[in-house]
Fold this sequence. Notes:
About 70% of the residues lie in helices and about 5% in strands. By secondary structure, the chain is mostly helical. A hairpin with a 3-residue loop joins strand 1 (about 60) and strand 2.
Amino acid sequence: MSIRHKPSVQDRLVDMIIESGLDTGAPLPAEPELMRVLGVSRNSVREALKGLQALGIVDIRHGYGTFIGEAQLRALAPGLLFHTRLAVRRADHRALHDIVEVRALLEGGLIRRAALELSEDDLGRLDAELAALAADGAEARAGHDRRFHELLYESLGNAMVLQLIGLFWDAYRELEHEVGKPQTDHDQVVRQHRRVVDALRAREPEAAAAAIAAHFADVQSRIDRLG
């Protein structure tokens, strides 16, 4: 017979939040009320709230109270970065390769939809970001590159995808500092991005998917050359 474990204070607090129907940004009851409802000590409530803050479930604003946090996946970032840094420390550049592969899978799955749904205004914003990527200096290029990829999917309305892309982007950039930035031909990168926009403007889903796949394959090949 299986033994059911007693829910932790943190688990009970999560259940209470869900059952209360509170929305993002809404304040939680004050500590005394949480102590009363959960039947636990002040210290237990505070430890549970700290744990939920680390997960992005609540936002503790000292002097103001505790609120329902934004639905952020950024709480995954420290663990992802830790394990990939361990691999890098062993001179395993596969960690960078894997991060790019995940991004390629995410973006490859949505780019076909983007080819059918992006508006002319969306495409105009992509054109402007691409022009900035081509013209600005090296220090600004990473920001324009990131923003370009966000704009590909921003209007599709999937906030979780944007968070995941940002999560893996940040981890990749952080690891570049440890293993060395792969050598890149900036003009080639700009041309790759232009092919993506051209396919989107032509409303050709398969061509867009092929263009984004080629872009990421090039990034992965540059990582492989790191050794």
